[in-house]
Write a structure and sequence with these properties.
With 305 residues, the chain is α/β, with parallel strands linked by helices. The protein is built from 10 helices and 10 strands. The N and C termini lie far apart (53 Å).
Length: 305
């Protein structure tokens, strides 16, 4: 019988449950831990016409475990992008987290998600962090990243768990589905050990990334100023940095504002060019929550009120 071990600290958590096999198994594992107080959260994206059935299933599942249940309807429509769906879902989960004053959100991302995300980020040409971007944080816990999809399905079958199959998971117009259904099988046919090699690469990259982050953080802390909701970067210092380092510093500065702005590689390059070359007094938005203002001597990032 497959054994899945997870380690979650005592406290209250919001558990994201879609109704798929991975989140159903996660909920079953968590519900067995008496040290945890759980709130089941389900987001109906409104992409499928029958998605309301998923909500009913998850609501019944929460009741079966005697847990609180929260849900919201996104009404995104059939043409919604993966990014729009993800942003709407995490916005909802954040609201539930605040409402219940929970310690963190727990999601059912597993080892296959980790691999697929790495491949997607490599395809998109993301920076070094893209290879190991799927990880746990203090407010977003992913306890199944060491568990394969196959093991999760075996656990569900052995324990007689029911789940819902999302028909959109077979739609290869979505990049993640294409990676899972087309690219991953092709890689397996070419090299049965590719998965093991990629996981080792991701692990090594995480170690190197940690060392680079420490160096970048020290460099930034010594040179940039923090004033409430503003980050002030000396313009001449930024101009003199190699572009590769300047990109890291700029991303570090945006992250300091804690506005959840996700900047893609090309956008970040464009922002760095603007910071270095724009005339004094020029302003540029970064997403919907941050502004960049260039002066003769500084580049200031400000969180919008």
């Amino acid at each position: 019988m497959p054994v899945i071990t997870i380690d979650i600290s005592r406290g209250k958590y919001v558990v994201a449950v879609s109704g798929g096999v991975d989140s159903v198994v996660l909920l079953d594992l968590l519900a067995k831990d008496r040290n945890l107080e759980l709130v089941v959260a389900h987001f109906d994206h409104g992409i499928r016409t029958d998605s309301g059935e998923d909500r009913k299933f998850v609501e019944q599942l929460a009741a079966q475990y005697g847990l609180k249940f929260e849900y919201a309807e996104g009404k995104l429509g059939a043409e919604a992008s993966e990014e729009a769906a993800r942003n709407a879902r995490y916005s909802f989960l954040g609201r539930v987290l605040d409402k219940h004053r929970a310690r963190a959100i727990i999601t059912a991302h597993h080892e296959d998600d980790l691999i697929e995300t790495a491949i997607i980020n490599l395809i998109r040409g993301t920076r070094r962090k893209g290879l190991s971007s799927l990880k746990s944080t203090p407010t977003l816990v992913r306890p199944l990243l060491h568990v394969s999809r196959q093991t999760i399905e075996e656990y569900a079958n052995k324990h007689g768990l029911a789940w819902i199959e999302d028909s959109t998971n077979q739609d290869t117009r979505y990049l993640r589905n294409y990676v899972r259904l087309e690219i991953v099988p092709a890689l397996t046919r070419q090299d049965p050990r590719w998965r093991e090699r990629l996981l080792n690469k991701i692990k090594k990259n995480e170690q190197i990334e940690g060392q680079i982050n420490e160096a970048i953080n020290r460099l930034a802390e010594q040179n940039i100023g923090v004033d409430k909701n503003r980050i002030i970067i000396p313009k001449h210092w930024l101009i003199m940095l190699p572009n590769s380092v300047g990109l890291e510093v700029l991303k570090y500065a945006v992250d300091l504002l804690k506005t959840d702005v996700d900047i893609r590689e090309q956008v970040l390059k464009s922002l760095l060019l603007f910071a270095k070359t724009a005339a004094a007094g020029k302003k540029r938005p970064i997403g919907k929550t941050v502004d960049m203002l260039v002066s003769k001597t500084t580049v200031t990032l400000s969180a919008k009120a």
